[in-house]
Amino acid sequence: LVAWLGGRGVKLMSSQPDVVAGLLIGTVAGVALLRGVPVGPLIAAGLLSLFIGK
């Protein structure tokens, strides 16, 4: 599942590079404010691609 999400994330970030800044800000905010574990921008982009349908 994680590899599949990472693959979707690569496709999304290569087709829409403007989402990278938002993903990085969200990753840093999640780690700093919510004491989360950084899963990486690729996985976050894969999850985002599920929500926006790309």
TrEMBL record:
InterPro entries recorded: UPF0756_TM (IPR007382)
Coiled coil: none
GO CC aspect terms: plasma membrane
One Pfam short name: DUF441
Alphabetically ordered keywords of this record: Cell membrane, Membrane, Transmembrane, Transmembrane helix
Protein origin, superkingdom: Bacteria
Official protein name in the record: DUF441 domain-containing protein
Organism from which the protein derives: Acinetobacter baumannii 1462234
